[in-house]
Amino acid sequence: MLNFALEVGKTHTPEAVLFWFLAPLAVLSALGMLMAKKAVHSALLLAWIMISLAIFYIAEDALFLGIVQVVVYTGAVMMLFLFILMLVGVDTSDSLVENIKGQRAASIAAAIGLAGLLTSLIGRANMGRSSVGLTGANANGNVQGLAEQLFTKYVWAFEVISALLITAALGAMVLAHSQRIRSRTIQRDQSIARFRGTSLAQAAGLPGSGVYARHNAVDVPALLPDGTPAPTSISAVLEARGDMIESGTFALQPQEEEEN
Amino acid sequence: MDISNYLYLSAILFTIGAIGVVVRRNAIVVFMCVELMLNAANLAFVTFSRINGNLDGQVASFFTMVVAACEVVVGLAIIVTMYRSRRSASVDDASLLKR
Q: Is residue B50 part of a domain?
């Protein structure tokens, strides 16, 4: 621990400043992502983690990967996540009830064990050697070096991964496709339903909202010639959302007293 | 700066992602935690590449990104399909096999 602290004190390079500024922020936002109740907050924090990882990549002489990280992860993947969140419902919050007893405590204990194992192993990952650095490998430019590797040594993996991409796209299409159960209602069907139904009352179409009404608004029912409101003149969507005023209040009152 | 600090950061992020996968219930958040784990592994790859002085680690990281993109596309499609039939994105609600 003392050695560690001394090492931290010794670092003067700009990279160290960058690291000690961004790494705690990344860890904090990862923790926040873990604890955020709303999925949208988690998504935004994850986007920030990905951006700081991109900055780390660029600091580590992986310029191409840094740019790809921003474009692919924060650009495409996170947008896809947010899109699905909007589709599935932003306000569905997590249930905090534990279905399996003690699952949370056990998993956190296991995770601490995993962290200890990983850090104790990773501490020896460079086997005491100092790092070589990428100045030699990046001599012709990072993108050129990566391209050389991709199209010579890893060309088979590259081909396989293109097949994987196509398969994934097809898979998403198959999963997102929903088969139509009934045939589409066309104008002809609507017309038949209107005229060959039980009554001809709706044959001329539903009354429009606000027609013969005292207010000109979509949530106000039309008044029929006898003064009664017509609830069918209001869109069913408004009714389902509860955005509608009780239509009985719009009925015309008989005004015989005034005439006398 | 000691370069293995990056590896420690990667280990921490990976662990947080692992906790999230086990603890959270919302399928989308679980998925985001998987993404965090993949990202942490990528950081380790890039750092290994720098330690060893060749670009193999960066190529591996590149492939991981492509696989992660595929995984997101298919996984989110599965979540949407699940949501369509169950009207919920919680992993607890997909429990038809229990009964």
A: yes
Provide ipTM, 2 decimals: 0.93
* Count of domains forming chain B: 1
- By C-alpha distance, which of B83, B61, B72, B84 is closest to B30? B72
The parts of chain A modelled with pLDDT lower than 70 are 1-12, 89-98, 126-129, 209-216, 254-260
| Number of Cβ pairs < 8 A linking chain A and chain B | 237
Q: Is the pLDDT of residue B22 over 70?
A: yes
Rounded to 5 degrees, what are φ and ψ at A8? -60, -40
Cβ-based contacts of A80 with chain B (< 8 Å):
72-73, 76
Contact A175 B14 (CB under 8 A): no
A16 vs B contacts (CB less than 8 Å): 1
How far is residue A129's CA from residue A143's CA, in Å, rounded to a whole number?
A: 27
CA distance B53 to chain A (A): 5
Pick B5's closest partner by Cβ from A19, A92, A138.
Answer: A19
Q: What is the domain extent for residue B32?
A: 26-88
> Is position B14 within any domain?
no
